[in-house]
């Protein structure tokens, strides 16, 4: 026992030992580290190793061998292959040996199925769980009965190097692997199994266990999807239809319908206004090329001046003309007369304007009437045009090379009609009728059946042999 | 310099249209596939307004499509399927050529198919849209279902059409939606009102097909493909609206005995017998929730604004009439002889609540035998029957159709075996005022009004003639009457005046002169009208004259028809008399 031994040698480790320096605790004085000693010298053995320790160890080993020996005899126990040792060591490090074995047997049932002739050996373990890292199975026959002698079996019981490398050195216990018991996707698998059980109770067999029927095969699925499959099934295609059109009653109650109409009216008014505005803007628009540039402004300013210069030569003649004009002076009488005339003219115009105004006032009614008439006429024309356009839509159009030709009307004359339904002779083909109707509605273009044209003429020859026979 | 010159091909009209061939190339489809795609998606050719602009200056006749339509087609998943199919065919041919039979079967197993469900949903976003467009689908479906298996189209298509049309007929029977029937030389026209939509379809007579050569069967088959899908979904919706099981099942309670017929095996294969029973149209359909005979739901009355009591009453009356029409044949028991078109009659009769049966050897699903004593009407189409039961009417099939159209059970006497039938009038013609109405129709109208006419034929005819004459006279004399009235008024005035003069001395207690207000009003109106005509401008006068001329022409035509009819009747009458004398 290590602590006992240390107690003997170091006083500081003894209970009740008091240090001089109170800040240092007595436990810290004794190093926890075990002293490394070579065990290949007899002297070392005698000096440092307690016999009791060895005895204890051996006892432990024996005990373990006994227990595992029993386990290995039972057929259920699985020994672990040497090549999975690494994994095993990990588990072993976490849990105690015996548990580890049983657990392994649970968790990896598949591992042993690939097992080949592995020697089964008795289990050897270290003293404590922490240092336990390696599990080895002994020979089934020999291992169970033989009590392991520490000296004789040393080589067999020595751990492999790999195991040593993989050994968990830390003293902190490895956290327990709580997932060890769990299968991946266990919940899902469990649910699937449960469902299968339920279905089995009803009498249904899951699809993968069912023998492949014709329906399941790729052939039939495609055939079932075909649009002309007579047994195909239909469903409610308009089921999730959003109800756009609301109840008229509701609309009336909430006053939404009239609002809509009003809105439309308001919109129309706005459109009209905008149109008028646009009209004015258009009328006021000017050509952008006519925009005044600096050059043009300058030109304008300079215009008269240049011309004066230019016309300097003619200045004299112009002056003389002006003088001549000025020379003819009006007499006083003439002026008076002119003034009177002017005033007269002005009066005349004023009176004319006045009467015109009055006349217009009286004309107001007739103007109104004419306006109304004009508006009505345009309205009528609009409706007419709209009707024409509508009619045009349903006219058979020219959609290809051929024009649509309506079918002859099938009529039976009075003498062709028979007296009873039994003797009635149907006339005309409904199929052709439908076809023509589609053409008439512009759904398909009128076509002609492709003609077979013979490129070369056929020569009819009567064979001589044939003639001879007949 | 007139600005930048426009590029010709980039102009508006040219870019809006695309020729068929270019569209086809854009979609990488063969012409047949392109045509099929267009039909399925509802894309139709367009005639551009300015062909020359669109056609790059050429006036060659071409088929144009709108560019945006074609762009819309580019995203269609079915296009991919068409291409796949093309590849499939190529591979299959190759496998056949190399005689790799396993490869052939494998390819056939993986034959690409396409579904049209999404197209239906896309083209008909709501159920009512679809229902409005079902006329064409029905006509086509009924047409294809009567095709023989000649290889002109797939047998499967025929079967599907048959199934869907039978489903439709069963629905119409259960909802009692049929309104009008007309036997024409092409086929039988039916009109039903389903969920407020008037739906008309044509059912060709059986065994009447000679396949025309100038009809493109491929195009028709494509249309049918689309229509069958549409009809299937519509049927589903209609069935669920009536709480019926879809696909339809026969009501096991009502027709328990029927379902376990012993002679099923003789008539049809086991696999087909159920379908055949359904198509016999003789039994009720199973409901999802088996309900005890639905009570006639009382119509709810929501007084609508702007609708007074009269209108509401009118509506109610109309509703009642419809209800009565639905129960036209209720309680009657029919037997259909073997020479009459069974399916049509069974359909029509069941639509109005009658019981129908036929000979066992004629079709599956016969409910009772000829010997059943409770049969009320026996429909036959032969001049005479050897063995006749005394307690039933032997009538010709036309009675059924005429009764339906006139909405009453017509007198049976005109439709007995061997009797010359009255004309079968079309219910789709609706005469306006002033149109010629044939006397037979007048008679039916009188019957509808409840005026019992129990007279000999000749007398009736005479009466009819008289009526007509009167009408004619009335029409002719309308204008004269006005003048006459005026004259009469004048005379009255004069007499009054004279009376006034003579009675100027005496004062008698005055009588309250009864003013015929209506008459006065009428007169006033007439006067106003005449004045208005006088005051008309030249242009308006011209228009007015034109309208009046049109009206008069109509009257004249009607008169001509009546005269013709009269001449015909006279001729036939004299013939009859001659015959009678001879005998």
Number of helices of chain B: 22
- Oligomerization state: heterodimer
Succession of helices and strands of chain A? HHHHHHHHHHHHHHHHHH
Most strands sheet of chain B: 4 strands, parallel
Amount of beta strand of chain A: under 5%
Contiguous low-pLDDT stretches of chain A (5 residues minimum) are: 1-8, 70-153, 214-220
What best-fitting shape of chain A do the alpha-carbon axes yield?
flat
Structural class of chain B: alpha/beta
How would you characterize this protein structure?
The complex is a heterodimer of chains A (470) and B (583). With 470 residues, chain A is mainly alpha-helical. Chain A is 53% helix and 0% strand. The longest helix of chain A is centred in the C-terminal third of the chain and has 62 residues. Chain B is an alpha/beta fold. Helices cover 54% and strands 7% of the residues of chain B. Chain B contains 22 helices and nine strands. A four-stranded parallel beta sheet of chain B has the order 7-6-8-9, covered by helices on one side. Chain B has a three-stranded antiparallel beta sheet with strand order 3-4-5. Chain B has a two-stranded antiparallel sheet with strand order 1-2. The termini of chain B are far apart. About 5% of the residues of chain B have low confidence. Chains A and B meet through helix 11 and helix 17 of A and helix 8, helix 10, helix 11 and helix 12 of B. Chain B: This is Pescadillo homolog. Chain B: Keywords: Nucleus, Ribosome biogenesis, rRNA processing. Chain B: Its main location: nucleus.
What attributes does this structure have?
heterodimer, A: 470 residues, 18 helices, 0% strand, flat, B: alpha/beta, four-stranded parallel sheet, three-stranded antiparallel sheet, 22 helices, extended, nucleus (chain B), ribonucleoprotein complex binding (chain B), BRCT_dom (chain B), ribosome biogenesis (chain B)
């Amino acid at each position: 026992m290590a602590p006992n031994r240390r107690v003997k040698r170091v006083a500081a480790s003894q209970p009740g030992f008091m240090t001089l320096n109170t800040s240092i605790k007595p436990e810290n004085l004794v190093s926890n580290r075990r002293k490394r000693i070579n065990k290949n010298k007899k002297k070392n053995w005698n000096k440092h190793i307690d016999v009791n320790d060895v005895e204890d160890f051996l006892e432990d080993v024996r005990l373990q061998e006994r227990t595992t020996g029993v386990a290995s005899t039972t057929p259920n126990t699985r020994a672990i292959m040497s090549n999975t040792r690494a994994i095993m060591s990990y588990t072993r490090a976490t849990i105690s040996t015996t548990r580890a074995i049983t657990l392994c047997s649970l968790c990896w049932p598949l591992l042993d199925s690939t097992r080949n002739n592995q020697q089964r050996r008795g289990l050897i373990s270290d003293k404590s769980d922490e240092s336990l890292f390696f599990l080895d199975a002994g020979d089934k026959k020999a291992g169970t009965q033989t009590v392991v002698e520490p000296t004789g079996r040393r080589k067999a019981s020595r751990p492999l190097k790999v195991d040593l490398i993989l050994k968990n050195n830390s003293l902190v216990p490895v956290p327990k692997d709580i997932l060890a018991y769990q299968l991946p996707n266990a919940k899902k698998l469990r649910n699937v199994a449960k469902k299968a059980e339920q279905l089995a109770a009803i009498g249904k067999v899951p699809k993968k266990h069912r023998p492949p029927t014709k329906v399941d095969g790729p052939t039939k699925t495609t055939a079932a999807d075909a649009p002309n499959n007579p047994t195909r099934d239909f469903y409610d295609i308009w089921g999730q239809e959003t109800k756009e059109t609301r109840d008229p009653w509701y609309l009336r109650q909430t006053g939404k319908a009239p609002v809509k109409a009003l809105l439309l009216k308001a919109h129309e008014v706005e459109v009209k206004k905008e149109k008028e505005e646009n009209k004015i803007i258009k009328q006021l628009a000017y050509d952008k090329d006519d925009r005044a540039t600096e050059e043009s402004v300058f030109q304008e300013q300079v215009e008269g001046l240049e011309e004066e210069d230019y016309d300097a030569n003619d200045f004299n003649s112009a002056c003389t003309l002006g003088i001549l004009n000025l020379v003819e002076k009006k007499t006083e009488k003439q002026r008076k007369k002119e003034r009177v005339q002017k005033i007269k003219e002005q009066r005349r115009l004023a009176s004319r304007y006045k009467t015109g105004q009055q006349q217009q006032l009286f004309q107001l009614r007739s103007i109104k009437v004419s306006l109304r008439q004009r508006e009505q006429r345009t309205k009528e024309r609009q409706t007419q045009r709209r009707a024409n356009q509508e009619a045009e839509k349903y006219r058979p159009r020219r959609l290809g090379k051929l024009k649509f030709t309506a079918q002859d009307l099938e009529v039976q004359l009075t003498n062709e009609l028979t007296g009873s339904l039994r003797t009635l002779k149907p006339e005309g083909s409904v199929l052709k009728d439908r076809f023509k109707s589609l053409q008439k509605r512009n759904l398909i273009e009128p076509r002609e059946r492709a003609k077979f044209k013979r490129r070369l003429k056929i020569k009819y020859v009567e064979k001589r042999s044939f003639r001879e026979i007949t | 310099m007139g600005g930048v010159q426009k590029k010709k091909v980039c102009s508006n009209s040219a870019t809006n249209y695309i020729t068929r061939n270019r569209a086809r190339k854009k979609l990488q489809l063969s012409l047949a596939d392109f045509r099929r795609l267009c039909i399925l998606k509802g894309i139709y050719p367009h005639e551009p307004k300015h062909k020359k602009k669109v056609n790059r200056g050429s006036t060659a006749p071409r088929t144009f499509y709108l560019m945006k339509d074609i762009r819309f087609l580019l995203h269609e998943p079915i296009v991919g399927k068409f291409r796949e199919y093309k590849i499939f065919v190529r591979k299959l041919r190759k496998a056949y050529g190399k005689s790799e039979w396993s490869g052939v079967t494998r390819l056939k197993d993986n034959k690409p198919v396409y579904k049209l469900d999404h197209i239906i949903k896309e083209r008909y976003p709501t159920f009512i849209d679809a229902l409005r467009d079902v006329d064409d689908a029905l006509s086509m479906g009924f047409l294809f279902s009567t095709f023989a298996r000649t290889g002109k189209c797939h047998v499967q298509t025929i079967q599907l059409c048959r199934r869907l049309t039978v489903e439709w007929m069963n629905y119409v029977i259960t909802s009692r939606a049929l309104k009008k029937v007309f036997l024409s030389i092409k086929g039988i026209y039916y009109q039903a009102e389903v969920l407020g939509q008037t739906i008309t379809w044509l059912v060709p007579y059986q065994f009447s097909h000679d396949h025309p050569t100038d009809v493109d069967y491929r195009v028709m088959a494509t249309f049918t493909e689309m229509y069958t899908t549409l009809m299937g979904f519509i049927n589903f919706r209609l069935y669920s609206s009536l709480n019926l099981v879809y696909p339809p099942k026969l009501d096991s309670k009502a027709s328990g005995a029927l379902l376990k017929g012993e002679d099923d095996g003789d008539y049809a294969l086991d696999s087909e017998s159920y379908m055949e029973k359904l198509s016999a149209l003789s039994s009720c359909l199973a409901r999802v929730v088996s309900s005890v005979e639905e009570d006639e739901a009382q119509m709810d009355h929501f007084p609508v604004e702007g609708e007074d009591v009269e209108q509401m009453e009118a509506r109610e009356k109309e509703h009642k009439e419809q209800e009565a029409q639905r129960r036209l044949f209720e309680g009657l028991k029919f037997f259909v002889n073997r020479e009459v078109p069974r399916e049509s009659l069974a359909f029509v009769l069941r639509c109005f609540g009658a019981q129908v049966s036929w000979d066992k050897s004629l079709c599956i699903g016969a409910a009772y035998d000829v010997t059943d004593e409770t049969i009320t009407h026996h429909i036959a189409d032969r001049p005479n029957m050897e063995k006749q039961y005394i307690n039933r009417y032997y009538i010709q099939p036309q009675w059924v159709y005429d009764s339906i159209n006139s909405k009453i059970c017509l007198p049976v006497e005109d439709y007995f075996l061997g009797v010359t039938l009255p004309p079968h009038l079309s219910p789709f013609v609706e005469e306006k005022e002033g149109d010629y109405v044939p006397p037979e129709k007048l008679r039916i109208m009188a019957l509808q009004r409840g005026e019992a006419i129990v007279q000999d034929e000749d007398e009736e005819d005479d009466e009819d003639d008289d009526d007509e004459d009167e009408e004619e006279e009335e029409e002719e004399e309308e204008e004269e009457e006005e003048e006459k009235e005026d004259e009469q008024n004048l005379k009255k005035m004069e007499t009054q005046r004279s009376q006034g003069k003579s009675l100027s001395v005496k004062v008698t207690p005055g009588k309250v002169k009864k003013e015929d207000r209506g008459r006065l009003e009428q007169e006033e109106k007439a006067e106003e009208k005449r004045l208005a005509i006088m005051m008309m401008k030249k242009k308006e006068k011209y228009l007015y004259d034109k309208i009046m001329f049109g009206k008069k022409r109509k009257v004249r035509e009607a008169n001509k028809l009546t005269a013709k009819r009269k001449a015909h009747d006279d001729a036939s009458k004299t013939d009859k008399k001659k015959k009678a004398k001879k005998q």
